[in-house]
Amino acid sequence: MAAQAAAAAQAAAAQAAQAEAAESWYLALLGFAEHFRTSSPPKIRLCVHCLQAVFPFKPPQRIEARTHLQLGSVLYHHTKNSEQARSHLEKAVSADPAAREEARALSGNSVDAAKPLLRKAIQISQQTPYWHCRLLFQLAQLHTLEKDLVSACDLLGVGAEYARVRGSQHLRLPPQLLLMERKLQEVHPLLTLCGQIVENWQGNPIQKESLRVFFLVLQVTHYLDAGQVKSVKPCLKQLQQCIQTISTLHDDEILPSNPADLFHWLPKEHMCVLVYLVTVMHSMQAGYLEKAQKYTDKALMQLEKLKMLDCSPILSSFQVILLEHIIMCRLVTGHKATALQEISQVCQLCQQSPRLFSNHAAQLHTLLGLYCVSVNCMDNAEAQFTTALRLTNHQELWAFIVTNLASVYIREGNRHQELYSLLERINPDHSFPVRRFLRETLKMSNAEDLNRLTACSLVLLGHIFYVLGNHRESNNMVVPAMQLASKIPDMSVQLWSSALLRDLNKACGNAMDAHEAAQMHQNFSQQLLQDHIEACSLPEHNLITWTDGPPPVQFQAQNGPNTSLASLL
């Protein structure tokens, strides 16, 4: 018996060593393939060779399917060999039905091509609850992308009813929560009701925490959409604690008896990235830009690890949204060169996915417009904002773009007719009392800890009082504006505030304070000028001329930037 036990132990150890070795060569080949794919320029032929080298090892079915899926993706995005790409995608689905939802995202890479595939998959998956519900969710998501919310809600209702028939309360809750969340006019009482449903639900720990993350993400994003940065803090803290809890739980600790309960709305590794993302959104709105940078770095690092083994389209979406937020942070903190390089990263990601570009084209042109304003390329800024307006029907983004376009017309000084026409589109009654509205803005921003909005309102009020000759009131506005801008840090508000403090102290006869403010202003100016020169010298600066079609692939260096210091002030 002892000999048999020893032999069994040796066999198990050999099997474990073999599995570990198999995983090692697979990860090595995958790592090389990813390195070649992400090289600049990409070395696609070498990437394909590395992936093809997996098959002679006769890998497990799961790895074989994943490799076919990755080959299909690489061939589709980087070559003209669409037939070979489709062949690999079909082999991926044949080897592992779980690859179906990712393969459909690459099949024709369009919503129209994906929907028939999903409908067929839904029909043949009636007896496999996990995939049936997941595919229903995917099809609902596609209808949402097309703004067909009626069809999306119908599919969510089908999912909820299917879960009821299957006796899975856990599976019923996500579509129910989404359906409730759509009724925006009743959102507050419904959010309260949803919270009670989740808390009262009895199930295994990982399922309950997964549902709590789902609900809290909906709740946090609703508050952020409403600009309630302070009010959302307790919910955001709960969400962060919840993801810490779920990260310590193991999926195989408690297996549900009902197969339908195997469904999770998102893998927990993806949930971690999503929580980082909403934390970045909160930090950005609140004006905690260093904190936004910290969480962006963590999220992007996690994403890079996940994308080594997972080509799920949602990861690229997360990456683009993170980059969009951090680009805005860079522009605020005076790091234009870094922002431009990150805009180029977004372009590269969008080159790989037409659907991603379609969803983010307006945001990409808006970011380029903001960059153009920061380097005083006003004609290009106008062209970028105009392009972005043409590409969006999103109300909040439209208002943001129009407001920035109005600021371009104001800075140019001779565009009064265009400015008035734009103001008519924003608000036909644009003869409003400026100081009263600014004070109301201050009141709202203070109530919700919107630090950037507070700093901008303070310095603008300070400027108005200075022009009116009310130096005392101007100083009462500019000093806290400078303190808040330093905390954010907002380089433009610091530059503006230091110039106002210099002029205020001169007017009041405070020579020493005026000299100190002038020195601060000079330091900020030099930092901005140096960054301005670096950004305009980058080959990516040529992106400012792109206003039509997909993002350009290559860039050529500039002859020389506009280095006028006056253009920065």
From TrEMBL:
Pfam families: Cohesin_load
Residues in coiled coil: none
One Gene Ontology term, aspect cellular component: nucleoplasm
Record's keyword terms, sorted: Cell cycle, Cell division, Chromosome partition, Mitosis, Nucleus
One of the GO BP terms on file: cell division
UniProt key word Cell cycle: yes
Subcellular location: Nucleus, Nucleoplasm
InterPro entries: MAU2, TPR-like_helical_dom_sf
Presence of the UniProt keyword Endoplasmic reticulum in the record: no
Main location: nucleus
Top-level division of the source organism's lineage: Eukaryota
Entry's family note: Belongs to the SCC4/mau-2 family.
PANTHER family, per database record: MAU2 CHROMATID COHESION FACTOR HOMOLOG (PTHR21394)
Protein name: MAU2 chromatid cohesion factor homolog
